[in-house]
Every structure is written in structure tokens, then in C-alpha cells.
């Protein structure tokens, strides 16, 4: 009989396969890897557990991990150019951080990360279960409950990834890891980062070492209506499914009519094209610290052109998973000071608000 493989052996084999795939496909489907590297038929080999954490109970989908964190938060593993599986709980921010940030920071403060139960986070003590800005009446809301009854999960009805028609986190992404990865939004597996229906292009190393030629390309759309739900493939629409009040014209725009959409704002706007607004915003230069989006996906990352449009989205300012900064921000908001000529000049907020600092 085949003897049980150690975690190190398993990840070494998986790693070699993923690296080959990642070079040719940003959203690489698992292919060419022995099924046993991820699955176990009975969770038993030589009377020993086949779970990565040696757990006695079998896991859904015959997987060798009982939760998403079992593969994406392996103790002691950090993201590196040779790490095949994105690790989303790294504590070395800036050296092993991926585009979405890290769930590690939920241990620092509730405001620093989404309190996803799959990563051991407790319920947010200030917010409870219901996401801030939740509106169950908006087009695209993930469910129609007046309030939420379950803590955030990675996927499913109460999560971001996969479909929202089941609370089963594995069921919501079932089969996605084996789909070809042609990002057209038609299936979970063919959606950006398994975010059902969302479009985008993914950095081959998940933005571990981002640059002007190696970065994610996010889908956006310039705002034209009250809740801007006409295009359900944008990254901001994903966020609006839970934080809808932060996206509707009635809640962010101070002008009359849903199509006015101009300053003065009641909340910071999303889905605004900086090029169309003009003024100081026309000086925006694409930077991974404050990434803008495009309405049409280019053929590849190298072809991304922000000279004619640069659309502000939620993740232009926030990390989806978490960060060392309050409100999951990409930078220290407390360090943003108008007229500064210090280290913060030209960074953070000033990437778009180009005339507000001292440069």
C-alpha cells in the first residue's frame, strides 16, 4: 500500500505543478497533479489521517483540509516566488502580502480585516454580524434578510467567493479549481478569483511583487445610475452586494437626480472616472498602491492602458482581506496630512488628490 505522504512532500509536488501552470495562465486550473495531493477517499492511509492537520474527521468534497484556511493559511508558510498556493494570513506585511492583504490583522483589531470565521476570527465586537452599509432592498444584495444571522465566511451566502445561493462554503465553489480559468464571468471557475460573475485579470504571482507590468487589472464602470448595478461584473459591484448604501446615489451624491453624480459628495464616490472628472484627478498615474480600474479588459496585463480612463473602485483604497491599517485601508489614513512634504507626499490619498499635498 502507498504510505502516507508528509505535508512537505505534498506541497512540494503541488508547488512544482502550480508554478508551471502559473507561468501560462493567471487563473491556473489544477491540472497534471495527482488527485491525492488534494483529495482523500476515506481520510485514512495505514490507519493514519490524510488531513493536512491530522484531523480525524473527513472533510467536504473529500478534501484534505476541512476549511479554506487548511490550504490557504498553512502554519509557517509565507508567500514567496516559489509558493504555489496563495497564503492569505501572512503577518509580514509588505514582504509576503498579496493583493487582498491578510486576515492575520483581524487579530490586531476588528477594523483591520474582515472577520471571516474560516480563519478563526471572532464576531466583530463593534459591528456584530451585519456588514456596515447593508441594504437588503438593493439590486444585487446577496440575500434579502433584514439583518445577517451568520458570521462572514470565505464563500457562499455569507461570503465573497463562489455562488451566494448556498451557505455551504465548499458547495459554493464546487468544481471551480478544476475549470479552465478563461475569465468571462460565466461560471464561478471562470470568474476573477472565483468571485461569481466578476471580471478582471490576475497577476501571475497574486501581486506578491507588483509593478507597472505585474499587477491585477480590475473591471470598473463609470457611474451612470442610482445604484450603478447595470454592470454586475465590476469589482465595486462585488462590494456593493454587502455594503450597498456606500454605493447608491442617494447616499453618496448631493445633487438632484441619479444621473448627476458630481461633487459635492456625501460619501467618497466609487465608479467615477478620474479622466472624465479632470482637474487635479487628471494627473493620476496608475500605481499599485491606489489602483484604478478599466471598463474594458485588455488582452493582457501589459496592454492595460489608463491614459484615457481610470475608474475609482472600492479596492482603490481598501484591501479585501485585511491590512495593518484601520478600515482595511491600503495606507495609514492618519498619516495623510494636507500640504505635507514628508514621506507621505505623493502617496495614499494623494495618488488621486494630486494637488492636496506639498508636492
From TrEMBL:
SUPFAM superfamilies: Multiheme cytochromes. Transmembrane segments: none annotated. The keyword Signal applies. Keywords: Signal. Residues 1-28 form the signal peptide. This is Doubled CXXCH motif domain-containing protein. Residues 314-357 form the Doubled CXXCH motif domain. Pfam families: Paired_CXXCH_1 (PF09699). The lineage of its organism: Bacteria, Pseudomonadati, Thermodesulfobacteriota, Desulfuromonadia, Desulfuromonadales.
Amino acid at each position: 500500500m502507498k504510505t502516507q505522504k508528509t505535508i512537505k512532500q505534498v506541497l512540494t509536488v503541488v508547488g512544482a505543478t502550480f508554478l508551471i501552470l502559473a507561468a501560462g495562465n493567471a487563473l491556473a486550473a489544477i491540472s497534471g497533479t495527482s488527485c491525492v495531493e488534494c483529495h482523500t477517499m476515506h481520510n485514512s492511509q495505514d490507519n493514519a489521517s490524510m488531513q493536512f492537520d491530522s484531523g480525524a474527521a473527513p472533510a467536504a468534497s473529500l478534501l484534505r483540509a476541512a476549511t479554506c484556511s487548511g490550504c490557504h493559511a498553512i502554519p509557517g508558510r509565507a508567500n514567496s516566488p516559489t509558493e504555489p498556493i496563495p497564503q492569505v494570513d501572512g503577518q509580514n506585511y509588505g514582504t509576503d502580502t498579496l493583493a487582498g492583504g491578510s486576515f492575520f490583522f483581524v487579530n490586531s483589531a476588528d477594523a483591520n480585516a474582515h472577520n471571516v470565521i474560516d480563519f478563526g476570527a471572532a464576531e466583530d465586537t463593534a459591528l456584530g454580524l451585519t456588514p456596515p452599509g447593508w441594504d437588503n432592498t438593493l439590486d444585487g444584495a446577496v440575500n434579502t434578510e433584514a439583518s445577517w444571522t451568520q458570521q462572514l465566511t470565505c464563500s457562499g451566502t455569507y461570503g465573497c467567493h463562489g455562488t451566494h445561493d448556498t451557505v455551504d462554503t465548499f458547495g459554493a465553489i464546487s468544481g471551480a479549481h478544476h475549470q479552465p480559468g478563461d475569465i468571462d464571468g460565466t461560471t464561478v471557475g471562470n470568474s476573477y478569483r472565483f468571485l461569481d460573475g466578476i471580471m478582471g485579470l490576475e497577476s501571475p504571482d497574486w501581486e506578491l511583487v507588483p509593478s507597472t507590468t505585474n499587477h491585477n487589472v480590475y473591471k470598473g464602470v463609470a457611474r451612470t445610475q442610482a445604484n450603478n448595478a447595470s454592470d454586475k461584473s465590476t469589482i465595486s459591484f462585488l462590494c456593493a452586494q454587502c455594503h450597498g448604501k456606500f454605493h447608491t446615489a442617494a447616499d453618496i451624491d448631493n445633487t438632484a437626480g441619479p444621473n448627476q453624480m458630481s461633487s459635492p459628495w456625501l460619501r467618497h464616490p466609487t465608479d467615477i472616472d478620474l479622466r472624465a472628472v479632470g482637474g487635479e484627478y487628471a494627473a493620476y498615474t496608475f500605481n499599485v498602491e491606489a489602483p484604478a480600474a478599466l471598463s474594458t479588459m485588455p488582452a493582457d496585463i501589459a496592454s492595460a492602458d489608463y491614459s484615457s480612463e481610470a475608474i475609482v473602485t472600492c479596492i482603490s483604497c481598501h484591501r479585501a482581506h485585511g491590512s495593518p491599517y484601520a478600515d482595511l485601508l491600503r495606507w495609514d489614513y492618519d498619516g495623510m496630512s494636507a500640504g505635507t512634504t514628508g514621506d507621505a507626499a505623493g502617496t495614499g490619498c494623494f495618488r488621486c488628490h494630486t494637488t492636496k499635498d506639498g508636492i
